[in-house]
Every structure is written in C-alpha cells, then in structure tokens.
Amino acid sequence: MSNETIKLLLVDDHHMFMDGIYAILKDISHIDIVGTANNGNQALKIAKSSALDLLITDIEMPEMDGIQLSKSIKKTLPNIKVIVVSSHSNVQTIDKLRKLQIDGYLLKNTGKIELLNAINKVYKGEKYFSEEILRVYNQSLFGTNKAEKEKVKLSPRELEVLKCIVQEQNTQEIAESLNISVNTVDTHRKNLMRKIGAKNVVGLTKYAIQQGIIA
Amino acid sequence: MSNETIKLLLVDDHHMFMDGIYAILKDISHIDIVGTANNGNQALKIAKSSALDLLITDIEMPEMDGIQLSKSIKKTLPNIKVIVVSSHSNVQTIDKLRKLQIDGYLLKNTGKIELLNAINKVYKGEKYFSEEILRVYNQSLFGTNKAEKEKVKLSPRELEVLKCIVQEQNTQEIAESLNISVNTVDTHRKNLMRKIGAKNVVGLTKYAIQQGIIA
DNA sequence: TCATACATCACCCAAAAGGGTGATATTGGC
DNA sequence: GCCAATATCACCCTTTTGGGTGATGTATGA
C-alpha cells in the first residue's frame, strides 16, 4: 500500500502558492503530481480524464470555488480523496465541508511536515484536520451569537433581499429591484434580523460580509 | 552587481506558503535566505541583527502586520528593500504601502518566474508591482465612491461614533455611551455619511469593515 | 488675526426602519 | 393528505434615520 504512488492534483488560483506546494512535493518519491488547475471547472475536467487518488484544493477561487468542486467530486468521483486548504477558518465553511465528507482540511499556515502527514493519512483512508480547525469547530458548539450556534438557514429570497440591503438599497428600491411589494421586503428584512439575530441593518451587513455573501 | 548574493528574509505566518517560497528560492544560486519569521516583531529582530538586502512579507499577520513592519523597516533600516505579498488587493492598502516607499507588491497568485523577476528588479533598486495591483490602483483614481477617490479624514470623535454604529448601537445608545446629546450623535452620523459618501448606516458599516476600523 | 476644523447642541420635517399580527397560495417532504 | 417552509401582501403603530439649517465655543495653524 505505502509502496504505491499517490496520484495528486493541485487546485489553486494562487500560482505562487501552488508553485510552493509543488516544490515541496516534487521530491517526494511516492507522490506524483499529475496536474494543476486554477479553478474548479478545470480541476473537474482533469479529474474525470485522469486516474486520480487525491485532490488538494483551495477554497477561495474564481468560477467554481473549492466547496462546489468538492461537492462535484464527491458526487461523481467518490473514490478521489479531497483535502481542502484555506487561509481562514470559519465555522460555516468547516461545517459545509464536514457534511460533504471531505477527507482533510488544512490551514495555509501548516508546515511541510504536516502537509505530508495529511496526504499520507488521507491516502490511507483516514481523515486529517488541522488542530486550529478542530479548535474552531469545537468552540463553535458553545458559540456566543445565534449565527454561530444554530446555523442560520436563509431562503433564496431572503438571500436576495440581504444582498440588496448590503448594496445600500432602501426598502422601496429593493421592492422595485425584485418586483415585489414594499410590505414583502419589510417582512423579509424583519425575518432576516430574527434569523440572524441582528438588531438592525448594520448587523445584517456584518453578517453578510462575514459569510462572504457579498463577495 | 549581479554576482552578489541577495540576502533575504521571509515573513509570513502561513508556514505552508513560506515553505513554498522557500522551496522555490532555495535552489537559486544568487539568493540566500538568511531567515524566516512568523510575525513582524520577530522579523524586526532578525533584520536588526543580520545584514539583510531584502525582506518579503505578507500583510495579514498576527501581532505586527506587514504594514507596520514595513513602516518600521523603512524608518530604522532604510537600506533594506521590502516586497509585500498578499492575497488581496485593495486601494487603501496599496496607497498606504506606496506612501511607505515600498519596493514591490505582489499578489499570491503570481508565479515563480514573476517572483524571481521581482526580487532581481527590486534588488537592483527598481520597483516592482503586479499588473493586478497597478490596475486596481489606477482604476481607483477614477473610482466611483468618495471613500476611494479622496482619502477620508475622520475626526477622533467621528471614529468613536462610527465604532458605536458598527456595534449595532442606535443613536440613543451612542449618546449614552459617549455622554453627549442625541442631536450631536445625529450630526456626527450625518457628517460621517457625507464624508464617506455612504447612503445609510450600511455604507458606514462596510466602510468601517473595509478600513479595519472595527478589528 | 482670520480661517478652518472640531465638538457640541437645537429644531423641523419627511422617509425609512422596526415590531407585531394575520392572511393567502405554493411547494416539497413525510 | 398533512405539515412546514416559503413567498407574498396588508395594516397597525412607534422609533429611528436621514436631510437641511443654524448656532456656539474651542483649538489650531497659517
């Protein structure tokens, strides 16, 4: 088992970062980097046409991000292991990836040794998560604000309204944007505040930015 | 000149990333990585005790960030060239660094070749900025919102009020927090909106978060 | 000294936000 | 079929925001 070569695909739009991982791994005899991709779409194509064992992907990427990519991979090519690497750790992201049965989650501040360790473990079928990730996730179970404790589920329409709010539109303008009544927008805004636990639109704005809803 | 060795210090709290740059540069004969640091304070100590030519630093770091580090370096050790590397590019950051007479600014999605190119140019005394950085900066000169065009100067009191607003306090609460009249808080809020070019408190919130005023 | 920015406050007024309740129609899951 | 969530709208009411104007004292710098 450990004599086999691990066929690996790197996915990250940060060339410098990818060059870095590449440089770290290229001298490891049992690891074979079969390709690199700058975004999820590209990665999917390569994954479908190659005999991959493992995929290492960033989360923040243009076109198709790491979460969507992971979802696609796990659905269509469940034999490929997936390790996610990101600069930041927030509870919602960790939770999403956990549900997708991701195999590993590393922060970009983890070192060479931990990276190799993670790759080997995941290849053998184990899971690997950075300590920081586990800490953040466990802490979240005792989180202070509503948005952290109970994962907030916003409906598609609520998300649309939220996006408009963050664009500094007032209720009247949002109603026109979405072709609905002012009263309806009012209702959505109030429901958003209740769900998110915000006191006013400022709270909604902060939530949206933290969740990357506006990006 | 080009036969000399470039003595270089890497500063980044992302170990994996640093390992990456390290791996890229370690085989380059005329580059000597004299050390690595995880934060600005550590970097300053090393810089003071070594004969450095060039420092490559991330912006986002704990304790002392890349901007503070650059400021200290340029003040106390002006002979050391500084290249900043970051994942993101926003106008305010670019502008701050420009004023600090930084020598280079790269995004993390720049490749190996560009990195080497930048190091060589900067070592020779030239400046090097990623295309993306130049694009963002030039665009900002014709930016849409006031906050980008003219750098906004907020008075200390206005900053206090802004912080309270971002904490989801309403005018009444802010007045109590700062022991002033509700009318005065109103005035400050209105002046903030005028200066920043925001349509409402949502705009103020976004500005505050972008500027890191709440961090 | 004069101008400017700052911090403070007041008043008027319109528009918007927020809090509560209730109603209807549609949908998807169990 | 029933239940829950969603999306839609209406009406009540109070509080808050936002826009405009003007006034006063203080401090600072040209």
From TrEMBL, chains A, B:
Residues 147-212 form the HTH luxR-type domain. Keywords: DNA-binding, Phosphoprotein, Transcription, Transcription regulation. It comes from the Bacteria. One of its GO terms (molecular function) is DNA binding. The keyword Magnesium does not apply. The modification 4-aspartylphosphate is found at D58. Residues 7-123 form the Response regulatory domain. Pfam families: GerE (PF00196), Response_reg (PF00072). This is LuxR family two component transcriptional regulator. It comes from Aquimarina brevivitae.
